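Usage

Read records sequentially. Each one opens with the input sequence:
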Amino acid sequence: MAKIMDRLLLFIYSLSIGVISVVAILLLSGAVSYSLTNEQEQLLIWAGITVAVILFLLSIRFFYISVRRDRSNLNSIDQRTEFGDIQISVETIENLCLKAASRVRGVKDLKSRIKVSQAGLEIAIRAVVDGEESIPTLTTDVQKQVHDFVGDTTGIPVSSVSVYIANVVQAPSFKSRVE
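and closes with the structure output:
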């Protein structure tokens, strides 16, 4: 909810700055002529002060948001054991996935992505295969290897492992040179 509010405030802030800039350009360039009575001038000054204070407060809010450290962005999975708390970074789990998947022969150029859900880890593996072996067999082997290795190593349940085969490696063709 706070992020939606901040986005709305940023939108209003940007729109206000844009409108003020256009009005200032038109008035200062002489493109729009104006004449004010003393009462209108006083009203304009108070409106200007009010807008300036609001924009200043919004600026402080956005400055605070830009420099604070967001606790929800630490990207770790927390576990509680009888001895205390354990935090495992998502990057660590991604590297464990890559390590497990690389043990399957015929799989190359691996990338992993982790999503944490109520049921456990949802792991997505992207791979390139060499085309020498059956792709369904390779993907099943990768799924089983990653599922078992990550589950055993971290103690975190793995709900699913999906494998996306991005491409097949082309075998380099060697041309013989005749001298």
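Summary fields computed downstream for this record:
- The first strand starts at residue 76 and ends at 81.
- The chain has a mean pLDDT of 86.
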